[in-house]
Amino acid sequence: MSKLKIEDMWGLDPSFKFFTNKRNKFADLYKGEKIILNSIIDNKLSVLDYGCATGGMYKILKKKIRKLNYVGVDFNERLLDKARILNPGVKFFSTKEYKKKLKNKKFDVVLILGLLHLNSDWKKIITENSKYSKKYFIFDLRETEKKGVENILKSNFNMQFDSSEKKYRNYKIPYNIINSFKVQKILDKKLIKFKKFIEIKYEGKPSAKSKTPYRNVIFANYCYQK
Ligand SMILES: C[S@@+](CC[C@H](N)C(=O)[O-])C[C@H]1O[C@@H](n2cnc3c(N)ncnc32)[C@H](O)[C@@H]1O
Q: 18, 29, 30, 137: most buried, per Cβ within 10 A?
C-alpha cells in the first residue's frame, strides 16, 4: 500500500486527467444525479460543491442556472489550481481554508457527489457540510442489503482511472459499502433538521477500479430538504 496521503493521490496524473476531461457535462452524470439536479434547478441558486475536483459541476450548473453563486471545495491542491484555470472568477477553496472563508454562510444547495464512499470519515463529512445548507443537501453512497464493509484492506478503490499504467493500482483508498438499514439510521440521526425529499436507488456493478467482496452494489442518491 502506498505511503502517499490520500489527498495527494487525487492529484496523480490519471485522476487529474480524468477530472480535467470528464464529469463536466450533464450527460456525464449518473442517472440518479440527473433526476435530482433537474428537480431542484431554479433561475437563481447558491451552491456549495464539496469535492469539486476541477470544477466540472460549475460548468454543468452554469448552463442550467442563470444566476448561479457557486463555491467549490476540495482537499487536492492540483485539482483546485486546475479548477481556477478552467473557471476564472469562480471561488474555489481548499478544505484547509473553507470553514474560515465561509463563516456562517449558507447555500441553497450543498452537493457532495462521488466521494463519501471513498472516505473513511464519511459520517463526519456529512455532519460538517450539511450545516452549510439552507434548503437542499444532495449526496450519494454505495450500499448493500448485506453486511456492509468499511475496511480498506477488504474493499478499496485504486487510482488508475483510465490510465494503462499499472503502477497506479498500488494507490488505494477506501471503497465503503454500507448496509442500507444502517445508512437510514445514521441519516435519520445526522439530518434531523431535514426531510428526505428524493431517494433514488439502483443496483449496479461496483467501480471497475475497485476491489470489493460484492458483485453488485446499490447506487444510492439522496436529496434532503429543509
Ligand atoms: C470522485 S471525485 C468526484 C468529483 C465531483 N464531485 C464529481 O462528482 O464529479 C472526488 C473528488 O473529491 C475530492 N475529495 C475526496 N475526498 C475528499 C475530502 N475528504 N475532502 C475534500 N475533498 C475530497 C477529491 O480530491 C476529488 O476531487
A: 137
Digit-coded pLDDT (tens) for 80-119: 999 999 999 999 999 999 999 999 999 999 999 999 999 9
Among 66, 62, 110, residue whose Cα is nearest residue 223: 110
The finding on whether 116 has its CB within 6 A of some atom of ligand 1 is no
List the grid coordinates of 85. Answer: 484555470
Distance 12 CA to ligand 1 centre (A): 13
CB of 98 closer than 6 A to ligand 1? no
pLDDT in tens, 108-118: 999 999 999 99
Interval between CA 72 and ligand 1 midpoint (Å): 10
How far, in Å, from the CA of 87 to the mean position of ligand 1?
17
CB of 65 within 6 A of ligand 1: the answer is no
Instruction: State if residue 171 touches ligand 1 by the CB under 6 angstroms criterion.
Output: no
For the chain, report the end-to-end CA distance as a whole number of angstroms: 42
Domains parsed from the chain with CATH numbers: 6-225 (3.40.50.150)
Alpha helices in the chain (DSSP H): 6-9, 13-21, 31-40, 56-64, 77-86, 98-102, 122-130, 180-190
- Which phi and psi angles does 98 have, rounded to 5°? -65, -30
**Distance from the Cα of residue 209 to its chain's centroid:** 17
Distance 9 CA to ligand 1 centre (A): 11
